[in-house]
Amino acid sequence: MAGQSDHSLSIFSAAEVEFIAEDEMIEIVPNIRMDALNLLCGDFGPFLPQIPCKVPLWLAVALKKRGKCSIRTPDWMSVEKLTQVLEAERESPREFQPLPFHYVEISRLLLDHAHDDIPEVYMVRSLIEDIRNVRFHKVESGLETISGRTYAVKLKNLSAMEVNLVRPFMVRVLQAFDKHDSPETVQQADTSASKRPQVVDRGLRRDLRPR
Amino acid sequence: MRRRGGRSASGLKERKKRDRMESWEEEGSGGGERERKTDVEAMREAWRREKAAPELLEFEGELVRRLREQIQLQEDGDEDDDQDLLSSLRHMDLDRALFLLKSYLRLRLSKIQAHLFFYASTSAQLLSPQEHLFCQRSLHATSRHLHRSLLSLLPPHYQSLSRQSTSSDHDDMLHPPHLDTFVFCKPNTHVGPLQLDDLGDDIVDLVVDDLYVLRYKSVTALVRTGRIDLI
Question: Where in the cell is it found (chain A) (predicted)?
Fold first, then answer.
């Protein structure tokens, strides 16, 4: 099906993550008058000029593209807040700062379609890029510390897009460690030393194929 | 259930509102704390759960039926719109709901296809009637194909589809879905300590809204009761 990703390994495509993010509510200021919208996903409006109201992100972007509204930048996307977050991210090498779960998708959509509504947009853009880089660097260094017998990993404050980027690798890594480190495997190696070598399990090889 | 003309826009809106109210009441009667949500939202969560889970989850028959009705109503009501903007926004909303529904159904079908033998013998609650039919037919077609092309040419002891040979004591060629895989999840209510494996060595304290990567086997029960969300 067009747009659907492979279900094995529970992979969401980036477009699907954005799809989920597009349902987040955001405030807009319409410049037209429009009756209330009774949609499947909820009721919005009525829309009056210069009266702010909340709509899902996909609706806000659609209206913005047609020039029917301006989008109010969320509070967390101000230069002050983002600078604070960036400094805090740089200072704590193991922790992630709390950010909206879909901050990557929301900021990407707003920067692409509503850059004229964002104050100091170039600063905001570069701050968000820096934040993304610092956080992902932390994720990568965190991955290096995964050792055998890791049963659970705690990733507080990680965002949706970051989770999705790291998901395939992390799942395979944990599964591989699980398979190679389990006590049954160790025991079998001892007892079957005299028998012929074990046939490689084809099923597991599927997991390791690079995509 | 197509209805033509003679129906006002406000009547349609009332009916849609009523449908949504009914679904909200159904959801709310189950547990007092659950906030009212639209069927689309519920479908989105079901889709996400199904995508993230390595095994087939229970079919959300009621939800799918209600959503289909609402989509049908919305499609019928399109004739009333003369404004370009309104109708294109309605189309977008419709497309989003349709994507969720279609993706959910196809996702389940691909999971069933991956483990045909296993799901053919599971309880009816897991599969919808149509999925059950699909499973039986696929199984029949696959077995027939394998028999004709390969199995009938093998010596008699090796002709079974589920056993390597007649000397096997169980169905060793049937693989149930891998439940050992790891999933990303977030508890939405307080769960507290969770035992991670049978040995009881490792306990993880699950805090609300923290993100964890855990083995699916450890959290299956929590996922089923909705106390933990799969990301």
Answer: Nucleus
